[in-house]
Specification:
By secondary structure, this protein is mainly α. Among the domains are: about 480-540, no CATH class; about 550-700, no CATH class. The chain contains 38 helices and eight strands. The model is unreliable at about 1-10, about 15-25, about 485-520 and about 525-545 (pLDDT under 50).
Length: about 700
């Protein structure tokens, strides 16, 4: 405050005391003055306390100890506006102290402060009342009080105040309040979006920042995003991103945009206006890690929706994310890896990442940051799942693990995690599938592959010339209607284009007028053939990799087991019945001393010769040995919900392990025994269960 100039005044009447000059050098004395009945004394005491408290936190603690807060509480509702204003000023400045806030909460001052936010009150009262509320709103209980006492409405109204301090305090308080879901719904009903967007035009960066932070929180709700779009809020946010002068706001602006991109309609709108292309370009040239990280997070949120993934793929978002993997910031690498994981659901994106992103992700596995490694492994797992062409990430990891100098616990764990998404390769390399490794269509058993030997895809194996090596057994029990649906799609598409396309119809009409029926049919068939070819090419493009023909015999096995074995009462009964079922389909029981007479090799060779291929569908195998039967048992068990593992032994041995709970001993009802592990006999006495570790179990697993 400036030095006041003394004014000439008329002398007071002779029957009135001269005004007393009140001075004090101790805080305690000033606090005592708060009990005065004189309004002028109260106003000056509050003013002195305000200046004292403004000097530091230590002085606030001193005033708290002197009982100043309780006295001031009585004055914030004083009838004199100057006393009331000065008392609220002291509250506003003191409320930054934790202990003061605690006492204010106990005194329940929020209702009194909210009442001071009325339009007719002085702007200084508005400033310090909102400041006090903002300090207190960091505590959950105070948030509830402000909400329940109707504080949101006056706070939103004050966003339009002519005073920047009032705006700043009000928006900060609202930002803290909307952390709670109830308040987010309430501010939406109170139409908070327009005044918040107006604050983005403020000349004060702190106000713009708080407005963006508030928009980021409330735009997590879908209904709010709709209102934001209706009020052209996306345009406001994009303009901030396009303006380099607002670089300090870009991180928060991206956070708002990230929420909005979750909606297909919003993403389409941004794409149509060129905003999405600008956004990706902006991320590409930015050197600010927080901006790059938030952009990747925005893409991740958007990519949870399939339509959004298609839009992002059209805009070549993959290039942006692959570039972000090379940024020297762990947070950016994590966010980019997570975005790649989300985008992998799009097959076209998966192909792009497979060609260009896998080497960078593999490099991240050697990072010192655990979070980076975990995000990279997850991305690689998603990239390689169901995609043999992408599985060469696995080759790199296997090469690392073969090197004693390069391998580590994480590289081994990473390989195992990736192998869980590539069970054919896992079974080939490790010879083991757990009960949680569910065999699905496309799985194939090509035998044990030695470390360092390239693991071939099923397509590559199917292209090889016939050999006398072990047949590759594959699983593909797709229902017949799925196959027919693909064929019908091609036929329907060709029909629609032939019958409904105006150009084709007109051409047919002209041909009819000029040429005979035979010529017309020939031309029509030619067009149909061309269209069929185009449709088939489109269908082929949709496939991530070559798929073998369906195995309808296996499908029948699964359907039969579902009808006859699944309804059985206990798991033990199901296991025994399934073992007998599998043995029956693969040649029946075999006498132990006549195992060498069971000519399964010749049978498999005949199938290979018939198919002119080394790849054999398991349903074709009618005389199967240990490893054929164990695989079929696992496949059907997985489909009908029986938990079992598949283990490869030596010399064509393989077996299934199941865990079963034995019945309680007689006379001890309700006793829960731990599950026991059993080996399932599929060869000699189908359905016989051998305890793991027993002599008979060991004999079954070995020659």
């Amino acid at each position: 405050m400036g030095k006041k100039v003394k004014k000439e005044v008329e002398p007071p009447p002779k029957d009135v005391f001269d005004p007393l000059l009140i001075e004090s050098k101790t805080a305690a004395t000033v606090v005592l003055m708060l009990n005065s009945p004189e309004e002028e004394v109260l106003a000056k005491a509050c003013d002195a306390l305000y200046k004292f408290a403004s000097k530091g936190d230590e002085n606030k603690v001193t005033l708290l100890g002197l009982g100043a807060v309780e006295h001031l509480y009585k004055l914030i509702s004083h009838e004199d506006p100057i006393v009331r204003r000065n008392a609220i000023m002291v509250f506003g400045i003191m409320a930054s102290n934790h202990d003061v806030k605690k006492l204010l909460r106990e005194l329940d001052v929020t209702n009194s402060l909210i009442s001071q936010l009325a339009p007719e009150e002085d702007v200084v009262i508005h400033e310090f009342a909102t400041l006090c509320l903002a300090h207190m709103a960091v505590e959950y209980t105070t948030k509830v009080q402000i909400f329940e006492q109707g504080g949101l409405e006056p706070l939103i109204r004050l966003l339009g105040s002519p005073d920047p301090d009032v705006k700043k305090n009000s928006v900060e308080c609202i930002y803290l309040l909307v952390q709670d879901f109830q308040s987010r719904a309430a501010v939406r009903a109170l139409n908070v979006i327009p005044p918040l967007l107006e604050l983005l035009r403020s000349e004060y960066p702190v106000i713009q920042l708080l407005a963006l932070k508030t928009l980021e929180v409330i735009s997590k709700d879908g209904e709010t995003r709709i209102i934001l779009g209706e009020n052209k809020g996306l345009d406001c946010v994009l303009k901030i991103l396009e303006n380099n002068e607002f670089s300090d706001l870009h991180v928060e602006a991206l956070a708002v945009l990230g929420n909005c991109l979750e909606d297909v309609h919003t993403l389409q709108l941004i794409q149509q206006t060129g905003g999405l292309k600008k956004l990706l370009s902006f991320v590409g040239v930015s050197t600010v890690p927080d901006i790059q990280k938030n952009a990747a997070k925005a893409i991740t949120k958007a990519a949870y929706d399939s339509e959004n993934r298609n839009i992002l793929n059209e805009e070549e978002v993959e290039k942006c994310l692959i570039n972000l993997l090379e940024i020297d910031n762990d947070g950016v690498k994590v966010a980019a890896s997570q975005a790649i994981s989300a985008m992998c659901e799009n097959l076209a994106s998966k192909r792009v990442f497979g060609l260009q992103g896998i080497p960078q992700l593999v490099q991240l596995l050697s990072s010192d940051n655990e979070e980076v490694k975990e995000a990279a492994v997850t991305a690689l797992a998603n990239l390689t799942a169901g995609s043999p062409s992408n599985a060469s990430a696995l080759d790199i990891l296997e090469e690392i693990n073969l090197s004693t100098g390069r391998k580590n616990n994480f590289s081994e764990a990473a390989l195992e995690k990736l192998l869980d998404n590539n069970l054919s390769r896992k079974y080939s390399r490790m010879g083991y599938l757990s009960s949680s490794n569910i065999i699905t269509d496309g799985f194939y058993d090509c035998g044990q592959i030695k470390p360092g030997v390239k693991f071939l895809s099923l397509e590559e194996l199917s292209m090889q010339e016939l050999t006398d090596h072990r047949a590759i057994i594959f699983i593909n029990a797709k229902p017949q209607e799925d196959v027919l649906a693909v064929e019908e799609k091609a036929q329907d598409s060709s029909y629609e284009q032939t019958i409904l396309s105006p150009s084709i119809t007109r051409k047919s009409s002209r041909e009819k007028a000029r040429k005979g029926k035979a010529k017309k049919e020939e031309e029509k068939m030619k067009e149909v053939t061309e269209i069929m070819s185009k449709v088939q090419n489109e269908i082929n493009l949709e496939k991530t990799h070559w798929l073998p023909p369906p195995d309808f015999i296996l499908l029948d096995y699964i359907n039969d087991a579902t009808k006859t074995i699944l309804p059985l009462t206990t798991t033990r009964e199901q296991v025994v019945a399934l073992a007998q079922f599998v043995a029956d389909k693969m040649g029946g029981p075999i006498e132990r001393d006549k195992l060498h007479d069971f000519s399964w090799e010749l049978h498999i060779s005949e199938i290979e010769f018939e198919l002119k291929c080394n790849v054999v569908p398991i349903g074709k195998v009618k005389k199967g040995t240990f490893y054929h039967r164990a695989l079929l048992f696992k496949v059907i068990a997985d489909r009908i919900g029986i938990g079992c593992s598949l283990v490869r032994g030596e010399y064509n041995r393989a077996w299934n392990e199941v865990k079963l709970v034995d019945e309680s001993p007689q006379g001890i009802a309700g006793l829960l025994l731990p599950p026991q592990e059993y080996i399932v006999d599929l060869m000699f006495e189908p359905g016989f269960l051998m305890k793991q570790g027993s002599a008979e179990a060991d004999w079954y697993k070995r020659i």
